[in-house]
Design brief:
Structural class: alpha+beta
CATH architecture: Alpha-Beta Complex
Helix content: 25-40%
Number of domains: 1
Shape: globular
Distance between the termini: 39 Å
Order of helices and strands: HEEEEHEEHH
Strand order of the largest sheet: 1-2-3-4-6-5
Strand content: 25-35%
Largest sheet: 6 strands, antiparallel
Radius of gyration: 15 Å
Number of helices: 4
C-alpha cells in the first residue's frame, strides 16, 4: 500500500515554501502574501458546532475547471460541500493522498496564491 499523508506532512510542505506564515488556529492554516492556500477543513454539520478536521485539507485550486477535474477525476480523494460552491477550493482526504502528490497540490496552491515577486523567487531557485 502506498504511503499516506497527515497533518505533519501538510505543515512540513507548506513551511518549506518561501514566505509562508502559519496562522494560529485549531488545526492548520497557511498563507503567503496574506492569502490562504491550504488549511484544515472547518466541517459544519446542521445543528452541530463547527469541527476543525485536521485529516482533511482545503486547497486553493485556481478555477472551477481545475476543481471539477479533480472532483470528477479522483472522487475517492477529493470532495467539496455546498459551502464551497462557486469557490476555487477542494478538500482532500490526507489519508488517501501520497506525500508526493500532496507536495504537488500544495506547491500548485502556493504558486496560485503567492504574489508574483515571491513566486518568481521560487522559479529562480534558492539564493546562493
Amino acid at each position: 500500500m502506498a504511503t499516506v499523508s497527515d497533518v505533519d506532512d501538510v505543515r512540513r510542505l507548506a513551511l518549506s515554501l518561501p514566505q509562508v506564515e502559519e496562522i494560529d488556529s485549531a488545526g492548520f492554516d497557511f498563507r503567503v502574501g496574506g492569502r490562504g492556500f491550504v488549511w484544515s477543513y472547518p466541517e459544519r454539520l446542521p445543528g452541530r458546532p463547527r469541527v476543525i478536521r485536521t485529516d482533511v485539507a482545503v486547497l486553493f485550486v485556481g478555477d472551477e475547471a481545475e476543481k471539477q477535474a479533480l472532483l470528477l477525476g479522483e472522487p475517492e480523494m477529493f470532495f467539496t460541500t455546498s459551502g464551497y460552491h462557486g469557490l476555487p477550493l477542494v478538500m482532500v482526504w490526507l489519508e488517501k493522498v501520497s506525500p508526493e502528490r500532496l507536495t504537488e497540490l500544495i506547491t500548485d496552491a502556493w504558486r496560485m496564491r503567492a504574489p508574483d515577486e515571491i513566486e518568481a523567487g521560487l522559479a529562480a531557485g534558492p539564493d546562493r
